[in-house]
Amino acid sequence: SNIKLADGFPAFTTLATNQPGTKCESTGVVPALTNTDWSSDATGVSCGGSANTVNPGGTATMTFQVRLNND
Fold first, then answer.
1. Residue 35's Cα: distance from chain center in Å?
2. What DSSP letter does each residue of the chain carry, written as one string?
3. Which one of 20, 23, 65, 70 has the largest count of C-beta atoms within 10 Å of its C-beta?
4. Tens digits of pLDDT across the chain (71 residues)
């Protein structure tokens, strides 16, 4: 039971240069999700792994910042 969170950037925004210190974290997920499981591309961000076990009551959190475009 792998877990992967993904979100696209809202319209008229781009990924901000400065990102939170903790971008990907979990509890009750083995192995735990960490910042090394976070990635981004031109359209969005994701957090997850390909070999995780999510225990009952487990949680995963992905955090990121966007910048409003001026156009």
1. 8
2. ---EEEEEPPTTEEE-SS--S--EEEEEEESPP-GGGEEE-SSEEEEE-SS-EEEEEEEEEE---EEE---
3. 23
4. 788 999 999 999 999 999 999 999 999 999 999 999 999 999 999 999 888 888 999 999 999 999 999 87
CA distance 8 to 69: 15
Q: Which amino acid is at 59?
A: T
Looking at the whole model, is its pTM more than 0.70?
yes
Pairing state between β 13-15 and 44-48: unpaired
